[in-house]
Amino acid sequence: MTQAAIPAVGEPIRIPIREIVPWAAFVVLLALIVLYFVSTEQGALALFSNSYVHEFVHDGRHLLAFPCH
Fold it and tell me: What's the CA gap between 51 and 26, in Å, rounded?
């Protein structure tokens, strides 16, 4: 006896938006902090007095086409 292959239809995947929103906000906040340090952490707007942050993100600054010299 042979049975015809019937494709199984699964339940649709539910995306829990209420669980994703806090993580998305956290990721956006981290991205803005990284963007600040790569783009403007030097000169008058610097949070740190030394140039350690500038030297740390120097190559990333050039990669993203931010001027720093």
Answer: 27
Structure tokens at 4: 């015809």
Contact 10, 36 (CB under 8 A): no
pLDDT in tens, 19-64: 999 999 999 999 998 888 777 766 666 676 777 777 777 777 788 7
Q: Which amino acid is at 30?
A: L
Cβ–Cβ under 8 Å, residues 53 and 37:
yes
Report domain extents, the chain.
25-63
Distance separating alpha carbons of residues 34 and 28, to the nearest angstrom: 10
- Pairwise CA distance, residues 24 & 4, whole Å: 45
